[in-house]
TrEMBL record:
Known role: Acts on ADP-mannose and ADP-glucose as well as ADP-ribose. Prevents glycogen biosynthesis. The reaction catalyzed by this enzyme is a limiting step of the gluconeogenic process.
EC number: 3.6.1.13
Family: Belongs to the Nudix hydrolase family. NudF subfamily.
Name of protein: ADP-ribose pyrophosphatase
Organism: invertebrate metagenome
């Protein structure tokens, strides 16, 4: 099903105030929008974080049916009273002029040490549309798991990353057990579960 389009007749932005401009940009919007009953909503205030396109890569080695996940500290998980070192897929933010594929190759090398044999597009989605405009473009990268590093990341950027090679079935079980809590990682692994037999043919 194709998404419907919208225009200025459906949403009216009445005002915008910049609240913070750092690594993240936070703006407050005053807006109203058409409701499902055809009427206009009252003016509402919403704070939105704006970010460039994000790229995520699920690394998969079909020869040994294993995925390469990374583990790093996340302050949001700490504030959520959760063990703050989360298992994730490789991910990064695109810089001006970069293609998604360029970002994917750079981040995979920096965060996992792996060299990709293939890079396959999967999907694009909004991780947190209630608070951010961020889109994440997801890929599956075919790799040789033996090429994975142990400790990776760009120290100048404060990255401290541990790399894990995990059998695919075990990774799926870890989702069920609550050991993997990162949403893009869960989405990526569930996608792989749906396309498992097809992806194993890339060995």
């Amino acid at each position: 099903m194709k998404l419907p389009t919208f225009d200025a007749e459906d949403v009216k932005i009445k005002g915008k105030t910049l609240r913070h401009d750092g690594f993240l940009t936070l703006s407050e919007y005053q807006l109203c929008h058409k409701r499902f009953d055809g009427q206009w909503s009252p003016v509402i205030e919403r704070e939105v974080i704006t970010r460039p396109l994000s790229i995520g890569v699920l690394l998969y080695d079909p020869a040994v049916d294993s995925v390469v996940l990374i583990e790093q500290f996340r302050p949001g998980a700490l504030l959520g009273n959760t063990y703050p070192w989360l298992l994730e897929i490789v991910a990064g933010i695109s810089e001006s002029g970069e293609t998604p594929e360029t970002v994917a190759h750079r981040e995979v090398k920096e965060e996992s040490g792996c060299l990709m044999k293939e890079l396959l597009p999967v999907m694009t989605f909004y991780p947190t549309p209630g608070a951010s405009n961020e889109k994440l473009k997801l890929f599956c990268g075919i790799v040789d798991a033996d090429s994975a590093g142990t400790l990776c990341g760009v120290r100048e950027e404060g990255e401290d990353i541990r790399v894990h090679v995990i059998p695919f079935k075990q990774a799926c079980k870890m989702i069920e057990e609550g050991s993997i809590l990162n949403a893009p990682a869960i989405i990526a692994l569930q996608w792989l579960a749906l396309h498992h037999q097809e992806m194993k043919q890339h060995a």
